[in-house]
């Protein structure tokens, strides 16, 4: 008899909680960190506020209020880009974390579902869903010009841009299908799609952009992770992780690409991208909602539904070296619990 109960995860080694930042504005919806690691931008959708936290002094926190329903957040340099709902349209607000002021706003039609920004801050990408369809709005922050790339999907979700800024990867979810969509950012054209078995929850890219980790989840099967070779738009491996009771909120990678963090509603699962082993779990004070590593890879920040950001120091030997797109992939051998049911194809 096969049990549906997952084995208890041990605590992930190499992670030490050193501080809790009580932002105190309600549930943390999104979190991003500046390129120098000095500032965290934290959104609070239910509180209509955005908090800017200086990481070297957690008491130095500025909260900007009256930001309508902020959710998605992305940072480049010392600027934070935040989605907001305005009357008749959504908009992308630009925060200068140095002066701690809103210095710009880009009105955008339809509903923004996620934001990504190029490493040089020149372009902001906003995924949008509306009654007329779904697309990606490309905002030129230097000129203010906008263009869009239409996507054949009911809704679009998360967006992730490669380090070199040449490719954007978008989650496109339909009624019965889901696809990972690759976009050439220079030409503004779709260059490829990869069909995924269930609705995509999040995407994470390896440092060299050669591998896309695509996470999906459902109440019947828990979390599934597809490993996609972005060079040939092929799925190299598919893994089932954890139990159905643990619903996925976010997927993010370490800066080195050595670890993947699956943020669930109970704890954060830490995976090795090299060995495909589950390294353990991290539990914070309340339900975790999002996480991000510092640019130097020495700290992990986890936001939760109580409005707290937990700071964890990461040991140098927390995981082995990461795979790159040039490494050979072997058959799936980890990242799944034998006690769980085997995934079956979803009837069409």
How would you describe this structure to a colleague?
- The chain has 348 residues and is an all-beta fold.
- The protein contains no helices and 28 strands.
- It has a four-stranded antiparallel sheet with strand order 1-28-27-26, with no helix packed on it. Strands 2-3-4-5 form a four-stranded antiparallel sheet, with no helix packed on it. The chain has a four-stranded antiparallel sheet with strand order 6-7-8-9, with no helix packed on it.
- The protein is globular.
- It starts with 14 loop residues before the first strand and ends in a 34-residue tail after the last strand.
- Residues 1-8, 322-334 and 336-348 have low confidence and may be disordered.
Record keyword descriptors for this entry.
348 residues; disordered N terminus; Methylamine Dehydrogenase, Chain H; four-stranded antiparallel sheet; disordered C terminus; mainly beta
């Amino acid at each position: 008899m096969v049990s549906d109960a997952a084995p208890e995860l041990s605590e992930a080694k190499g992670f030490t909680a050193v501080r809790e930042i009580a932002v105190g504005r309600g549930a943390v919806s999104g979190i991003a960190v500046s390129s120098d690691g000095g500032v965290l931008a934290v959104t609070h959708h239910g509180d209509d506020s955005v908090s800017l936290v200086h990481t070297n002094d957690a008491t130095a926190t500025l909260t900007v209020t009256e930001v309508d329903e902020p959710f998605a957040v992305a940072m480049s340099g010392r600027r934070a880009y935040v989605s907001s709902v305005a009357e008749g349209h959504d908009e992308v607000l630009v925060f200068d974390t140095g002066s701690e002021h809103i210095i710009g706003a880009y009105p955008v039609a339809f509903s923004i579902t996620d934001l990504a920004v190029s490493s040089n801050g020149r372009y902001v990408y906003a995924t949008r869903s509306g009654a007329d369809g779904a697309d990606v709005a490309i905002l030129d922050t230097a000129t203010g010009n906008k263009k869009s790339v239409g996507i054949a999907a009911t809704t679009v979700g998360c967006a992730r841009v490669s380090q070199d800024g040449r490719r954007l990867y978008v989650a496109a979810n339909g009624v019965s299908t889901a696809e990972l969509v690759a976009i050439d950012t220079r030409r503004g054209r779709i260059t490829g799609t990869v069909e995924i078995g269930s609705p995509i929850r999040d995407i994470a890219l390896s440092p060299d952009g050669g591998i896309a980790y695509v996470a999906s989840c459902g109440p019947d099967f828990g979390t599934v992770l597809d490993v996609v070779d972005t060079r040939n738009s092929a799925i190299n491996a598919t893994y089932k992780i954890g139990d159905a009771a643990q619903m996925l909120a976010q997927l993010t990678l370490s800066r080195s690409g050595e670890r993947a963090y699956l943020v669930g509603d109970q704890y954060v699962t830490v995976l090795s991208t090299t060995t495909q082993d589950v390294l353990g779990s991290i539990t914070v004070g309340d339900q975790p909602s999002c996480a991000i590593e510092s640019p130097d890879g020495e700290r992990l920040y986890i936001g939760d539904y109580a409005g707290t950001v937990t700071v964890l120091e990461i040991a140098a030997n927390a995981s082995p070296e990461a795979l790159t797109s040039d490494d050979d992939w072997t058959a799936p051998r980890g990242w799944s619990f034998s006690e769980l049911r085997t995934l079956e194809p979803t009837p069409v």
